[in-house]
Amino acid sequence: MKSDLISMEELTSKEITNLIKLSIKFKKNKLKISKNQYKNKILGLVFQKPSTRTRISFEIAMKQLGGDVIFLNNADLQISRGESIKDTARTLSQYLDIIVIRTFSNMEIQEYTKYSSIPVINALTNTNHPCQALSDLQTIVEEKGPIKNIKITWIGDGNNVCNDLTIGAIKLGANFSISSPRRYFPKKRIIKIASELAEKHKVKFELTTNPIKAVQNADVVITDSIISMGMEKEKRKKLKAFLPTYQVSKTLMKHAKNNAVFLHCLPATRGQEVSKEIIDGNNSLIWKQVENKLHMHKALLHTMLK
Ligand code: CP
Ligand code: NVA
Fold first, then answer.
1. Deepest of 57, 98, 174, 254, by most Cβ within 10 A of its Cβ?
2. SS3 of 52, please?
3. Per-chain mean pLDDT for the chain
4. Which residue from 48, 124, 136, 285 has its CB within 8 A of the most atoms of ligand 1, so it is best to mutate?
């Protein structure tokens, strides 16, 4: 049966751990893959939103594995003129071996998975970004060792990256705190899943409007843009709600552990969600995160093309 990746909700702790191990093997060049294994295999990238890192790292990952790639801008497909996802998915399945999609709603991804006979990977929707969560968990493991019982703090919008990172990190046994203005907490459904998982894994899951409380004793502090792609209409209102209280600054980081690291999936707006001195400082792991996207995407393609 084909496997798809829609969100971190479907992955077990074991599957997450295995993907991280596989990605680290790719990173260390420790995986021998025959030159012909992916010859004639084609990855299709269907993108409805801009991307620098995810698109390029998937393209390079597939090429380094020995396969080929086609980039499909949504505007160039008949879907932009009203053709259904159902017919598009069936058509693409005849030509491609795997599809990576970046779009608005998870319903669209689900529709693709329903009618594609090939694996589908969610490369970001308004509510999820599982590929980012996986490579960020790898970055944290490499820096901190096993994630079990460490404290990870998310400061900022309860967005797509936050949703998948929360669920993935708790599945690996991390304590997880989220701090944002109340109306920007993750949706109730995510809070419910995260709370149940935290109970199962015997860890703490905390939601607070107090960022100082959230970063207290944190091993890892993470943030993301206040304004996600497609949410530009809310810009003024959101910036007012978040700033300056929810900026990851030197003052805020003082409440975390001395050796706490900082993560941000990028793109970032320095001076909004994070200060320049933190994102460009010694404890920032942003460039490791960028690198690990390549290795994790190879691990995903290798696992899902089997
Ligand atoms: N982090 C991330 O997904 O970046 P891009 O939007 O550039 O792909
Ligand atoms: N939350 C951001 C992530 C970008 C990679 C967005 O959706 O724009």
1. 174
2. coil
3. 97
4. 124
Beta carbon of 229 within 6 Å of any ligand 2 atom: yes
State the pTM of this model: 0.97
Structural domain boundaries in the chain: 8-128+293-305, 132-289
Contact 175, 154 (CB under 8 A): no
CB-ligand 2 contact for 135 (6 Å cutoff): no
Q: Which atom of ligand 1 is nearest to the CA of 102?
A: 8
User: Around Cβ 15, how many Cβ atoms within 10 Å?
Assistant: 16
**pLDDT tens per residue across span 35-58:** 899 999 999 999 999 999 999 999
CB of 54 closer than 6 angstroms to any ligand 2 atom: no
**85 within 8 A of 79, measured Cβ to Cβ:** yes
Report the candidate in 155, 160, 148, 302 with the shortest Cα–Cα distance to residue 230: 160
Q: Which of 266, 292, 297 is nearest to 279 (CA)?
A: 266
Superfamily of domain 132-289: Aspartate/ornithine carbamoyltransferase (3.40.50.1370)
CATH code for the part of the protein at 8-128+293-305: 3.40.50.1370
Lining residues, ligand 1, CB within 6 Å? 51-55, 124, 132, 265-266
Asked if the domains at 8-128+293-305 and 132-289 fall in one CATH topology, the answer is yes
Of all ligands present, the nearest one to the C-alpha of 230 is 2
Confidence of residue 1 (pLDDT cuts 50, 70, 90): low
User: pLDDT, tens digit, for every residue of 185-225?
Assistant: 999 999 999 999 999 999 999 999 999 999 999 999 999 99
